[in-house]
Each structure stands twice: as C-alpha cells, then as structure tokens.
Protein 1
Amino acid sequence: MLFSTDLLIFSPNDVDLNQSPFRRTIQADTYVLGAFNPGLTRLPNGNLLMMIRVAEALKQPIIGAQIHAIRWDAVRGYVLDSYPLVSVDAADPRKFQVLGHPYKVMALTSLSWLLPVELIPDGTRVVTVHYDKIIAPERSYQEYGVEDARITKIDDTYYMTTCSVSSERHSTTLYTSTDGLTYGLRGIILDHQNKDMVFFEGKIDGRFLALTRPLGDLYFATRPDSDYHSGPSINLASSPDGLHWKPSDDPLIRARKGSASTMKIGGGTQPILTDQGWLLLYHGVELRGLVGIYRTFWALLDAADPRNILHWEDRTPILEANLGLTEPLKDQIYLSDVVFTTGIIDAGDLYIVASGECDLACRITHIPKPILTLD
C-alpha cells in the first residue's frame, strides 16, 4: 500500500551516545542496536512527541570465554555481569539464554532507555532531541531496561505505559505527565509478563479502559472446531484511577484461523474515538523465521461498549515492513519483516501513525482516513 508520506524519521545514527545514561558508570564501548517503537502524542505547543526506545548494546559482549550482560544496579549504576560462554545459548544478538535453570532464563547484551524526540506538527521533521528528559531505570524492577512506550492523553494528563524488565518480573509500569514531555514514574500497574498495555484515549462512565496482552509459555488447546488458535490475545481491562485494573472476563481479539496473524497478536496504537467507534491498530505475527513476520492490522470497537467489535481486519494488513525505507541502514539490520505500530494522531483528513521498523528505526506514515473507515 502506497502512502503520500511514509518515511524513517529517526534511526540509530541520530542518537548521541555521549548523552547516554550508561556513560555515568560503564566504560565499555557501546552502540545503538535500535531506536524504535515510539510512543506518540501531541504536545500543548502543537508539535508531536515521540518517546523512542533506544536499545544500547555492547560492541563486544564476548571477551575470551565470557559473555557479558548490561544491568542497572541501584547502588553501582550500570554494570556488566559475566557468564561463561559454555553456560549460555547466544544465538540471538540481542540476548542470550542462561542454561541450567528449570525455567527459560535470559540476559541482555543491550539495555533499553527512552528518548523524547519532538517533531513538527505533521511529524515529518525533528525539532529537538530532549536528552535532558531521558527516561532510564530507577527501580530494581527495571534493572534490564525500560521498553516500548505507549502514550495516551486523557483530560489534562498524559499517561505513558512501558514494559519494565528485571529478574524480579517483566511488568507494565506507568508514567504520568502534565506537559507531555516530563514524566514521573507511578509504579507497576500490571504484573508479570503483561505486555502491550495501552490506555484508551478517553473514559467510559468515568472509568479508564486499556488493552492488555498477557503472555505465558503454556497455552491450552481450543476446541477442534474453534475459529481461533491457542495463544496470546488482546484483552480489555478497566480501572477507576488508572492504577488498579480489573480484566474483562472475556477476551477481545484473538488469533483467528485463516488470518495473517496466527502466531501472536498485541496492542499497538492507543485506541482513539472516531465517528464510527474506537479505532485501534494492532500487530499480528505470522510464524516464519526467528521472530516471525510482524504486520499492522486494525479494528473498530463500539463507542459505548468496546467489548463489541464492529469491524476486525486481520487478513489484509495496513502496514508491512518496507525494505526501501531501511535500504540506507541495511548494514545495521539484524531483523527483517517487522513493523511494530505504537502511536496514532488524528490530523484532520488523515492519521499520523508511528511505528518501529525492523526493530531498528522510527517510521512515520500518513494514512488517509477512508482507509480506516467503514464504507
């Protein structure tokens, strides 16, 4: 699908690592593995704000017979932990599995922090990179990083959900802001391995609503004649205050047989209210290769009761990875066939959509409204 505006707006080459929080305590050489998966919102001045995940990695994680992981420590700051090479599986450049445990245990050769980048109102040019507003680990439950921001403005407050990664848990954490740029940590709001939590951009009957996506290593079989595959689903939850959440009793969007997203699905953009209902863009994954093929699909939910799906397009994607966009960065690509959409802005006759491209860079796409509208 061709769009009038479809570009990479920010890449690893645009990050100044002299401003990295690592510089405080780590002397090892690092590089930007990816600057991607940006949360997106509009600031009070009319400009856009992307909250970009910067995955900063060790240039040489393996030294001699040891492999090293980056970790944040409350006392020592950023540190390197050493593991014997013979005790790990290091097939993935982003992480390695520590063998000999009764469960699957991973460590990271990179650690993610969040970088606020301000754009002009149509999202096509960078105005300022706010290194003074970096969001980095500050609690033990973030020792392996802060990832994949989603931003939703409700009334006069910006709510930003993130994934916080640690040996304690893999949780969803909340930050809030009154200006869209300076955020304070409010703490954990969803516990272990509940990823892709996204607030709706508005309340229903005075309550917050959010998409969630619980993960696990075990799923039970659907009945043989079911329309759905077993596996992760996008669910609804509600809250009186944005901090305490009650999951809906029923799943919302599941991996449907015959679709192009049978391996994994998860929330993408913050659901926004349109004339036809709540519009959401989400990712679906087709089983192929190391991580699968990530594409962006869409759905419309009833304005008064989002449990009712009015339209669900899971066969023809809105966005797919665009090799032409990443051609100038081809020497830095370590994943292909991945687009991970993470933010949307209503801009009159079109939507401005922000995505992570190939876990490498940030993509801005202008999508005409009729494409995401029922006939």
Note: The CA atoms of residues 259 and 315 lie 5 Å apart.
Protein 2
Amino acid sequence: MRLRSVPLGVVALSLLVIIVALMASARSFAAPSAIPAWLEAHVGNGDGQISQVVLERARALYLKKVAQGAVRNPCYFAMDATRPGDLGNGVLGRRYYVVCEASQSFRAISSGHGGGRNLKGTVDFSNGRRCAKNFGNAMDSELTAGGAYMTREAKTSFKGFYRTGAKQDVAFQRTFIQFDGEGEVANARQRVIGGHAAQVLRTMCMRKTPNSSYADHDGFVPFGKLVDYAGGRSNGCTSWSPADAAQLISMVKDNPTTLYIYPESRDIAAVASGRSASGTYWNASCLKEIGKPKFWPRKMLEPVIAQYKKDHPAPPAQPLPICKEP
C-alpha cells in the first residue's frame, strides 16, 4: 500500500493550528478566573475598599491553595499594610479583608502593623501609629513582612487575671493563630508571627489566690490591667479588635486558609525608587507622610540586632511585685 504524499505547506499549516490551539489552552488554564462583579464593586483605594493589586494577589494565592487541596475554607484573608491604621478622632482605618466568595461576603476591618524598633545610637526602624514606613523579615525586628501566608494551629494561653467594672476577677486567655509563610516570609513560624486579639495585661503584680487552678506553688496568680491596643502597633503580628479576633479565629480554627499581606519587598523597592511598576501601588496619604518606605532584609538587620543585644544585655528578670490590695 502506497502512502499519499502530503504537501509540505499543508503539514506546516496543520502544525501551526495545533500549536495555536495548545497555546490558547495553556493560557486559559494559567489565567486566573475573573473577579466576580459583586466583588469588583468593593475594589478601590478608599476606606473600606480593597485595592486592585491586593485583591488580585490574595485571590490568586487562595485559588492556588484550593487547587492544591491545601485549603477547603470558603473564605480567605488579605491585608494592605500601606494604608493608615489610625484615621484620627478615634476612627481606625480598615485595611484587613475577609472575603467569602461562595456567600458573596466582603468585610473590611482594622488591624495593627509592626511597630519596629529604635535601637538608640545604632539604627532606627520604628513605625508610627498611623502609617508604616519600615518593613522587614528579621528576627526580633517587630516589623511587618508582606507576602503569602497560611493560617495554622490555634494556641490559647492564660495571661493572668484582671478586674472588671463589676469588681469581678476574670481570667484572661488569649488565642494565637500561627501563620506559616512562603519565600521571604518563610521564617514566620521562627518569628512567631500570627494573629490574635489586640489585648494585653499591663501593670502586672502577683495576688494571693490559693484556691485558683492557676495559682503557683505559693498560691499566687498574676494580676494586671486589661489594655486594648487595637488602635496601636504590634510586634509584627496581625492584631485585631477583640470582637473581630473572636470571629476570625473561629473561622480558621481547624480549617486553614490563606492570608496575603501587601506590600512585598519588590513593591517597596519599586515605590522607594520612584519607578512606576505595573501592579504596584501605595496608599497616597501614607506615602505623603512617610516619604519613602524601606524594607529591611533579615541578612542585613539580624546581625545588627544581635550585636545590639550583645552590647546592651537585658537586665536579669525580676519577679513580679505583690499586689497592693484595693
């Protein structure tokens, strides 16, 4: 049986058609799904809105983890740390986002940013209450680092007792959600970065309460004043108001999801250099206030912090004083 010869031009044309079809298929597979109209309505740079680049990256991270089978949670999180945390007159900026596409739910809430540190006489990488200028991923830097995270296990710790307005002593237990990061934020667990309520006990002392299940071997329990710092800064963690924290923690406990924090170091470098990079932005009011943002990489900052600790050793830990009974 003789095979019919096919003109070379026909073969080339057929191959071209196949290649174009494969390329189109690859593009459609790789391209992220379009943002639904209801969610697009929340996109913008005003308070309570989410900026386009932040949503696109947060959504791409979530869809990737869902496709990998790493996430089954119907909701995901995002944070825009370039926005102001304090709008003045007791109003907090809403820059942390909870997106649940299945139920078409979008919420914008407040969140703290890393306060950084001022190593006096050495280097100052501290942040103000309103806007963050300094970012980084170094140990003990207390800075926010942008990038891709996953929520992980929840750990609840007893911090001590505090007194309510009704003169009742209440045990303060705070839940911490550990984050795991990728790339530049892969050391999130090492840095103990996670999310929790913006509450802490201050002015601590020890009170004799021998019948308490929390009492030490001498019958004392720690006691302090409960302080809400939702309008302040954190040690690099994501901190929420107590009410928001309770809701968010319940959403991700035993059901992990993704959190994308903007900006990454590449965004900071682009803005600081004045380049108009595609997909990069900064909140206009904060940029005017801080001038140029700065990213402090761990390889550069960690040796500086270590040397400062060596040169300025912390004083020996002192036992808490005994409370003066009211």
Note: Helices lie at 8-30, 37-40, 52-68, 242-252, 265-273, 284-290, 298-311.
Protein 3
Amino acid sequence: MNSKNPSIACTVSSCKFHSSSEDYCALQKIQVGTHESDPTMIECTDCQSFEKK
C-alpha cells in the first residue's frame, strides 16, 4: 500500500497496512485492544487491525 493516514503513525513494516513510503498506517481507522483483563502497561495493548504482509 502506498497511501498513508497522517493521523496513524506506525513503524511495523511487516504489517499489510503499513504505508510503503513512510512510517504510517494506510487504514482509515484501526482497532486497538488488549489481551489482558486489566491492562496497566503499553505492552498489554495490541493493534487488532494488524495483518502480516
């Protein structure tokens, strides 16, 4: 994907939705979630829109 959403910065270049030209997401919106019952740190959150290239 070559498009970018300047509102969503992303450095995960292995994601299908990573802008190929800059460190941004190409989606219009993302879903952020958690795998913890009581998240307390950044490591407890996940981009649930991620898809491997």
Note: The first strand starts at residue 5 and ends at 9.
